[in-house]
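Weekly structure sync, notes
Attendees: PL (lead), two postdocs, one rotation student
Agenda item 3: pending single-chain targets
PL asked that the sequence for the first pending target be pasted directly into the notes so everyone works from the same version. It is reproduced below exactly as submitted, 315 residues in total.
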Amino acid sequence: MTLLADTVLCLTMNPSVDVSTHTERVVPADKLRCGTARRDAGGGGLNVARVVQRLGGRSSALFPAGGPAGDWLVSHLQAAGLPVRRIALADDTRENFTVQALDTGAEFRFVLPGPTLTEAEWRASLAAIESLPHLPAFVVASGSLPPGVPTDFYARLADIVRSRGSRLVLDSSGPALAAGVAAGVYLVKPNLSELRDLTQRPLDTPAQWRAAAQALVDEGRAEVVALTLGEQGALLVTRDGAWGAQALPITVASSVGAGDSFVGAIVWALQRGESLPDAFTWAVAAGSAALLTPGTGLCLVNDVERLRPQVRLQR
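Predicted structure, written out during the meeting:
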């Protein structure tokens, strides 16, 4: 894998092949006849890399993968022109499954835990980053950790990235997110539930949301907090201030990929040299655009460009 100076390096520890389809209705016991299946590369970091690439930036993907699904991921991403580096696994890469019920429009998402990594395999993922002659300005770690990977994995990654003069963008959940943020990251993108877990605060009001995000910044756990709030928009908090954005009026086709589109757009814009508030507007537009795409699709460039002028920031 060749990294260029303006490349965003995206790490995905638990990638997947995401299969999506539809059926007339979901009921127990019956055989549910489904439509044609669509397959996409899945996992937070892979989605972020694809969004950066889709918006016109350069990205590279690093991920552990094994078995036929792992082979499919590599060939699929390479065919799309994305530089990849695969850490070989003995076990098979997971497949996830999303079904939309046409009678109600409801989505049913079935997410598997992923293969169990050996110590040698997860250490190889860190070693692959350490061995790079130059790290790009931004390293993105996004998604869950598969079984076998220690909770402090993202904390170890944060130490490596910081020691190399790069910036870590982290989007995960649970103990893995908490450990990574405790080590200190450049940007973290929690949702409201994840921010509650990180801060152990009730967070019932917008003032409490802002105060909790500001606490992460003041405590040095993150330089930037980009809080996504679903139907209530998003909030960006830094040492220099805070900016809020209301949710755009969108008819939701699918919520899958909205968070990854948000992260991909904000990193893409920052890599281009845009200010944090301007990058935030791109992120809100991209997250909103992803809601328009059915199944496991990500944001489309035309939708992002059309929606971005509608994003209004409030301080």
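Discussion points:
- The mean pLDDT is 94.
- The two ends are 42 Å apart (CA to CA).
Action: rotation student to compare against the earlier draft before next sync.
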